[in-house]
Write a structure and sequence with these properties.
The complex is a heterodimer of chains A (about 350) and B (about 600).
Chain A (H helix, E strand, L loop, with lengths): L2 H7 L11 H21 L3 E2 L1 H4 L1 E6 L6 H10 L6 E5 L2 E7 L3 H14 L8 E5 L5 H25 L2 H25 L2 E2 L1 H29 L10 H38 L3 H32 L3 H23 L10 H9 L1
Helix pairs in contact in A: 2-7, 2-10, 4-5, 6-7, 7-8, 7-10, 8-9, 8-10, 9-10
Chain B lengths: L1 H18 L8 H4 L1 E9 L8 H16 L7 E5 L2 E7 L4 H8 L4 E11 L18 E3 L39 H8 L57 H9 L18 E5 L4 E11 L3 E8 L6 E7 L3 H13 L8 E5 L2 E4 L11 E8 L1 H15 L3 E10 L5 H26 L1 H27 L6 H30 L5 H33 L3 H32 L2 H4 L9 H4 L15
Parallel strand pairs in B: 6-11
Antiparallel strand pairs in B: 1-3, 1-13, 2-3, 4-7, 4-10, 5-12, 6-7, 8-9, 9-12, 10-11
Helix pairs in contact in B: 1-10, 3-8, 9-10, 10-11, 10-13, 11-12, 11-13, 12-13
The chains are: A alpha+beta (about 350), B alpha+beta (about 600).
Chain lengths: ~350, ~600
């Protein structure tokens, strides 16, 4: 073990997250724009559960599930859910226009040697439309308010705001990935989004808890600005963040990559993509969006401005020396080293 | 701690054994189920309106998936309603959804809080004074409704300011509360379009009805006005119904679709589950409603619901309102019961003889319209004709499920390898903790499946897999804290374990609280699959807390006494090299080498 891995392992890392906030903001802004454009241009590829669809029923005792799925795919249907019933096959597709319905019926009938009128069609409404969607949206809004309230009490409103902004950031970007990839948005995907929502907040809260602890020690005579202290806190929890993300993401990645490549696309792929993207973005945003935003908000407070001014004037004399005094064990200074790295 | 955890696991295992429930109940996508097509028809053969079909969909969704965890789906298909219920051979479900949903007016005989500990009740939240103000004799002029401004308001514009119009503090306010429950309550409460649980008030007064034993079963008696209002008055309540009433817990089962026989008394819950009622025999049935509309009061600008009766309705309505008006609270309320659930129970402010009535209260546009459409539905109840019944296989191919499980297992293996490599000795703790969490989760899912109808669907499974991350994070937070403490180099491992715990505990609790709030809010406000998922999320969060508190921490404390860990053996994960313990300053600034 050597190099970065070794330093990671021993907790000797020191990345200037906060100092590079312009970079992160730029990156996030870019991602958000790309996602929004994707959502506007492509929209989401909603599944039959949201939009309603066409249900075909027919009897083909000798067919196997892959053949049935293939037959509908070849006939031009995109979202195909195949079920067997005590009465033959039941295949749900997206809402097809009348002429395509005929095409599909013809193709399927031909494939399985049936008369065309034995492939019956039923149009079904959205099982996840209307009320279910409305209530979910209401729930989300109430949830956001509840979280802001809770975090304001547990921490402070600036942290609450930053955490929720980071959360929205994650959701938009994840939705953007769906818009661009044209992966299907099913109820399962929606629930994946909800999981991300929980995960993203969870991660931000753990990071903020550490920031709160480290910055609580800041007084008028302290040798660090809020920015530096927050950056220290980030580095301090960096191992935790990386470990947690890795542990959480390994199973999801396994489902996404192994599951999909071995067993083909389907619900699993749709769902695990949401989680995979959401978790990575969630970890990123806790470190690089929520915290810099918090710092920007906090540095406006007079007491932290005072520290920053005092340190700036001292800094003219011996910046490196002052900021090199570690305040928290294990976490080293931020700004100075950041400077150094950037020069390389 | 460890022992009590063991006791919990054994107890749950024992219950599983007794119930012979060893596998979870699977949801629609994993197990397949029964799909029923219902064709709603009106009694007189006219085609049902779009509106009443939508309402019927809502009613049926409540019947099959009221708690949100049974993974049933209800969809509209043209004029038909398609219901999919997990599991095969669900004959009783088919029977349940096929019954006609009817509306009835019943006088309230007794009320009580909906469940022993109603969730999130705010006893201080004032019920808005919002009783029925009758259209009365001057049927056409919109009768001035009691202004919803103040509680104990004496000068109601209604012609007869009555006791019910100005609720004395002693009066159980549930009736008005219910009307208020149909209202968007205060900004603090949930702005949902449906009655939210927080809106209604817990009646303080009605004590256990069983205690005052006056079970004189005069079957049909509306109560005489002389009855003392202090206790819950059991006069005239059928003992059997009273028993049902006492046993009723609205937080578990609101009794949707219950067979409410119009000629019998009936115990039921309010729509939000906050209040339960004993109700008299049906006084007016829904088909006597001629019209029901939401409108705005010309004078006060308040939203209200107006309804009128036809046929025998006006007479019956005048009879029940007269009786109610002459009764003591809570019997001065008349409940509207749709499909076994009390949708509103306004206080009657005067006998209403004209066959028209209006219900006022803190209605919003949406809540007034909701009540009006529920009443309209009652006017024209839909019967459901059974169409096709199919047993369907799971919508996910078996291949998908197998793929998911294999991939999940690979992922878990990777997690185990990673924690062993990174945390070495402590990795054992995290792997064991995850094992304990998995056991608890599996047991909970099985037991909930057996007792509460919880159905495990693919999103739940994935959610549970993700929860591995959250659970693991609790250990990681704790371990990193221990190592921080150790790095400072001043403490023995045994002290470090305790000091680190205090700090880690706070982080874990705050972060888990966030997850839990998410779960609770979504569970109560969302319906269908979202609610089911929220349920699973809340469950795993609780399990995480239990495991960290009752297993991980005590287990680490136990290990800290072993030499292997205390001395910082190379493989313990707490060795000096790993900690890079530097005496004195503990500074770790490292020359850049990249």
């Amino acid at each position: 073990m050597s190099g970065i891995a070794r330093r990671l392992y021993r907790g000797e890392i020191d990345v200037d997250f906060v100092g590079r906030r312009k970079l992160w903001y730029g990156l996030s802004a870019l991602l958000l724009v790309v996602s929004t454009v994707g959502l506007l241009l492509n929209g989401l590829n909603l599944g039959v559960e949201f939009k309603g669809g066409s249900v075909f029923s027919f009897k083909a005792p000798t067919a196997v599930i892959e053949q049935v799925r293939g037959a509908f795919g070849d006939a031009g249907a995109h979202q195909v859910i195949v079920q067997t019933t005590n009465n033959g096959w039941r295949v749900t597709t997206e809402s097809l226009p009348a002429e395509e319905v005929t095409t599909v019926q013809k193709a399927v009938a031909q494939r399985f040697g049936l008369p065309q009128n034995q492939v019956t069609l039923q149009v079904i409404g959205a099982s996840w439309g209307g009320q279910v969607a409305d209530k979910a949206v209401t729930g989300l809004i109430v949830f956001m308010l509840a979280i802001i309230l809770y975090l304001t009490v547990a921490f402070e409103w600036k942290m609450a705001l930053s955490a929720v902004v980071a959360l929205l950031h994650d959701l938009v970007i994840t939705a953007g990935v769906y818009a661009w990839s044209r992966f299907e948005v099913t109820p399962a995907t929606l629930l994946g989004f909800l999981t991300i929502l929980g995960y993203s907040l969870y991660d931000a809260v753990v990071v903020f808890d550490m920031i709160k602890e480290v910055t609580a020690k800041l007084g008028t005579t302290s040798k660090m600005t809020y920015t530096q202290a927050a950056n220290n806190a980030l580095n301090h929890t960096l191992i935790r963040s990386l470990n947690t993300t890795l542990v959480a993401i390994l199973p999801v990645a396994a489902i996404l990559f192994v599951g999909t490549s071995l067993f083909g696309a389907g619900t699993l792929k749709d769902l695990s993509l949401a989680l995979f993207v959401g978790m990575i973005v969630g970890t990123y945003s806790s470190l690089c969006v929520a915290t810099p935003m918090l710092v920007t908000l906090k540095e406006r407070e007079p007491r932290y401005q005072a520290i920053a001014r005092r340190l700036a004037s001292q800094g003219a004399r011996g910046a490196a020396k002052a900021s090199r005094q570690p305040v928290t064990a294990g976490a080293a200074n931020g700004a100075a080293d950041g400077e150094k790295r950037r020069k390389k | 701690m460890l022992l009590s955890l063991l006791a919990i696991i054994l107890a749950m295992g024992g219950t599983m054994f007794l119930q012979k429930a060893f596998t979870p109940e699977y949801g629609l996508d994993l197990a397949g189920g029964t799909t029923v097509t219902l064709r709603p028809v009106t009694p007189n053969g006219t085609p049902p309106t779009e509106e009443s079909i939508d309402l019927a969909v809502g009613i049926i969704r409540n019947r099959v998936n009221g708690s949100g965890i049974s993974d049933a789906e209800v969809a509209k298909s043209g004029d038909n309603i398609i219901i999919s219920v997990p599991g095969v051979g669900q004959e009783e479900v088919v029977k349940l959804v096929g019954t006609t949903a009817e509306l009835r007016f019943r006088q309230v005989l007794a009320i009580a809080a909906g469940s022993p500990q109603p969730p999130g009740q705010m006893p201080t939240q004032a019920p808005s004074p919002s009783p029925t103000t009758p259209g009365g004799k001057g049927a056409k002029t919109p009768a001035p409704s009691s202004s919803p401004k103040a509680e104990g308001q004496e000068d109601t514009p209604s012609s007869r300011p009555t006791a019910s119009a100005a609720p004395a503090p002693s009066g159980p306010p549930a009736g008005r509360a219910l009307s208020a429950a149909l209202v968007n309550p205060s900004p603090a409460a949930a702005p949902s379009t449906s009655p939210s649980p927080g809106a209604s008030t817990k009646p303080e007064k009605p004590a256990k009805p069983g205690k005052s034993a006056t079970p004189s079963p005069q079957p049909s008696s509306p109560v005489s006005p002389e009855n003392p209002p202090a206790e819950v008055d059991t006069t005239g309540i059928d003992p059997a119904v009273l028993k049902e009433f006492e046993a009723l817990d609205c937080s578990k089962d609101k009794g949707q679709g219950a067979q409410d026989d119009p000629s019998k008394q009936f115990a039921g819950c309010s729509q939000d589950g906050a209040t339960k009622y004993v109700l008299d025999k049906a006084a007016v049935i829904g088909s006597s409603i001629a019209t029901a509309n939401a409108g705005v009061d010309q004078t006060t600008g308040e939203w209200l619901v107006q309804l009128s009766f036809k046929g025998q309705g006006p007479d019956q309505w005048s009879k029940v309102t007269t009786t109610a008006f002459n009764s003591q609270p809570p019997r001065n309320q008349v409940a509207m019961v749709l499909d076994g659930v009390v949708i509103s129970a306004p206080v009657i402010q005067e006998p209403i003889t004209g066959g028209r009535a209006q219900i006022s209260g803190n209605f919003t546009d949406a809540s007034a319209n909701e009540l009006a459409s529920q009443l309209k539905f009652g006017a024209l109840p839909l019967k459901f004709e059974k169409g096709s019944i199919d047993e369907v296989s799971s919508s996910l191919g078996a291949d998908q499920l197998r793929g998911g499980l294999i991939a999940g297992a690979i992922g878990l293996g990777l997690v185990v390898i990673y924690s062993m490599l990174y945390y070495r000795g402590l990795g054992v703790v995290s792997v064991l903790s995850l094992t304990v969490a998995s056991i608890l989760t599996f047991q909970s899912v099985v037991l909930l499946g057996a007792f509460a109808g919880f159905r495990l669907s693919l999103p739940h499974v994935i959610g549970l897999i993700v929860s591995i991350g959250i659970t693991a994070d609790s250990f990681i937070v704790y371990f990193e804290r221990i190592r921080d403490e150790m790095k400072e180099g001043r403490r023995s491992l045994r002290t470090a374990v305790e000091v680190a715990w205090v700090r880690a505990r706070r982080t874990i609790l705050i972060a888990d609280a966030v997850m839990f709030i998410a779960a609770v809010v979504l569970y109560f406000l969302a319906v269908g699959g979202v609610a089911g998922f929220a349920f699973a999320m809340g469950l795993t969060t609780l399990i995480d807390v239990i495991v960290v508190f009752m297993f991980t921490k005590p287990f680490v404390a136990l290990l800290a006494r072993r030499k292997f860990f205390a001395k910082g053996h190379r493989l313990s994960g707490l060795d000096a090299e790993r900690m890079s313990v530097v005496p004195a300053t503990g500074s770790t600034t490292v020359p850049q080498e990249a």
